[in-house]
Amino acid sequence: MKGIVFTEFLDLVEDKFGIEMVDKIIEQSELDSGGVYTAIGTYKFSEMLQLLENLSNNTGVSTDDLLLVYAEHFFSVLEDSYPGLLATYKDPIEMLSSIEDHIHVEVKKIYPDAELPTFLVEEKSENSLVLLYKSSRAMHHFGLGLMNKTFEHFNSSAEIVLEKIKNDGTEVRFIINKN
Structure pTM? Predict the structure, then answer.
C-alpha cells in the first residue's frame, strides 16, 4: 500500500484525535515500518489494518465509519493535489464510471506499483450506476466515502447502496442513484 495512504491517515488522526492518539495507535501496533512512513514508500496493508483497528478500539468508532471519514479527508487531498484530473469530468456518474479506465490509469502513472481495487461498470445510465468492487483488501467503505465526496464535489447527491457479495468485503456492489 502506498505511503501517501498512511501519511494522510495519520494526519487525519492527529487532526481529529490529537498527536497523543497517533503515538498510542502506533505503539499498540506491531509495525515493520515502526510507524515511520513516506508518501512515496510502499508498506504492508496489515499495518493499515492494525492502525485502523487500534484507532477503532481507542475511540469506539467502527472501522467502517473511520474509513468513511478518512475517504472524505483523502478526497480533499486529491482535490488539492490533482485539480486537473477532477476538472476532466462534468458529472459524478461520468467520473465514477471511469475509475478503472482513466483514474486508475493516472494513479498508476504516479505510483506504478500501487495495488488498486477493480471497479467494473455493470450498468450505467445518465442518473444511475452499478459498480462491482473487487479487492484483496476490504476497504469498500473507503470507496463509499470517496463516492460520497465525488457527488458533493459536483454539488449533487445520490443514494448509494452497498451490497456485499462476499462477506469479507472483498467483493461489493455499489448501486448508485443520483438524486
Answer: 0.88
